[in-house]
Design a protein that fits this description.
Layout: E1 11-16, H1 21-34, E2 41-45, E3 48-55, E4 58-65, E5 70-75, H2 86-93, E6 98-101, H3 113-126, E7 130-132, E8 141-144, E9 153-160, E10 165-172, E11 175-182, E12 186-188
Parallel strand pairs: 3-7
Antiparallel strand pairs: 1-5, 1-6, 2-5, 3-4, 8-9, 8-12, 9-10, 10-11
Length: 189
Amino acid sequence: MPTIPAPNDQWYVVHVLSGQELKVRDSIERRIEAEEASDVIFEVLVPQERVSEVKAGQKREANRKFFPGYIIINMHLLNDDNTLVDKAWYFIQETDGVINYAGTKDHPMPMPMHEVEGMLAQIKEREGSVMPAVAYEIGDTVVVSDGPFQGQTGIIAEVNEEKGELMVSVNIFGRETLVPLEYWQVENG
């Protein structure tokens, strides 16, 4: 039988109604204070990142969830002897929008610590930055949606993910020319 992590090191994936992740998180956070559950529920996460996309020629930013339909909760759910902490179990189970603990039928298991650390690092890494909603690859055909080459079709020759820039080959006066563009200035062709 695997050893049970310390109460503060137990992280669980909870399946919730899709599209209700933030509502469920907010409900849990309000109830923690009202029902004095801060001794068993420590943190509730809905891992997200900012993404930019172009729709109808307009650049827009939005939040995109890493795991749609799931929230991550740091809570004391299992005792050292692998028995459930009833207060934490029922607190989560009785929250509107919660379906069940992910990956288990009747007895949840905490996430391995290396997975938790990787997820937390990924959240911290993407904090404050805006990622493109679409990932581009060399050879993809795109349509320029902004700038002097608007409306032209081109082929991606280089991708710089760190800067969110592309080198796109477009036809100018009968010659193929490389044009530097940002992700938001193109759409899939």
